[in-house]
Amino acid sequence: MKKIILIIGLLFSVIVAKDLNLKELETNCNNGDMKACSSLGNLYDKGKGVKQDYQKAFQLYQKACDGEYLEACINLGVLYYKGKGVEQNYQIAAQLCQKACDGGNSEGCANLGYLYQYGKGVEQNYQKAIQLYQKSCDGGDSWGCYNLGDSYQYGKGVEQNHQKAIQLYQKATQLSKKACDDGVLDGCFVLGDLYYEGKGVKQNYQKAAQLYQKACDGWDLEGCYNLGVLYENGYGVKKDNAIAKEYYGKACDLGLQKGCDEIQKIK
């Protein structure tokens, strides 16, 4: 169960959205607060307290990104990557990740590394991906460390080095735990993956389920999907197809197509 989609949930977006109501965010955004615009975009992106509207989210992320709020540039890149609220365009997604990375945003570097690794919007280049994952990891991004660990584990762009991979997984574990404790949903999701796969920590499906639950409760679509996988297979939780279908449905409602696909497969 590996993360195959760009990270969406951002620290500032999640925290601000919790602390301020819709009206306050709208007022602050109209008054030039780019963080508020990004947080408001996140509400429309996720459908939290408002009707889900990707086009509205796109407009708000664009405004905030134009105002040099780099977290919004990342979210805008995700919409271009997924074709939500705008025509799918991997090249623009890469440009936005590049902008965030150049501005010192470690998550932007991790996402750009992912695009280079898989040749999405840029020419596939494992060495470039490694450099970006390293920059991201050095900057404290758990997903950058996670992906760099995978690169060493499987010898992608670097000489295979299992000991180095373990060290990076352990660093990813520390960073994602701190992020999760601070309320960053992506940290909970990444930490859940580490426990699910036994990378840097002893494999623990129950712990993974708890972390995916926390992520899902905060509207993290991938957390919901992975929780569905655990319930469908009885990993760390009692096997229950009805509950699995419920979580796949939530992931689907949040915009994850593979969640929609899994609903049809469960009897």
From TrEMBL:
SMART domains: SEL1 (SM00671). GO terms for molecular function: beta-lactamase activity. One of its GO terms (biological process) is response to antibiotic. Keywords: Antibiotic resistance, Disulfide bond, Hydrolase, Repeat, TPR repeat. Gene3D superfamilies: Tetratricopeptide repeat domain (1.25.40.10). It is an enzyme of class 3 (hydrolase). It catalyses: a beta-lactam + H2O = a substituted beta-amino acid. It comes from the Bacteria. Its EC number is 3.5.2.6. Pfam families: Sel1. PANTHER family: CYTOCHROME C OXIDASE ASSEMBLY FACTOR 7. Belongs to the hcp beta-lactamase family. This is beta-lactamase. The lineage of its organism: Bacteria, Pseudomonadati, Campylobacterota, Epsilonproteobacteria, Campylobacterales.
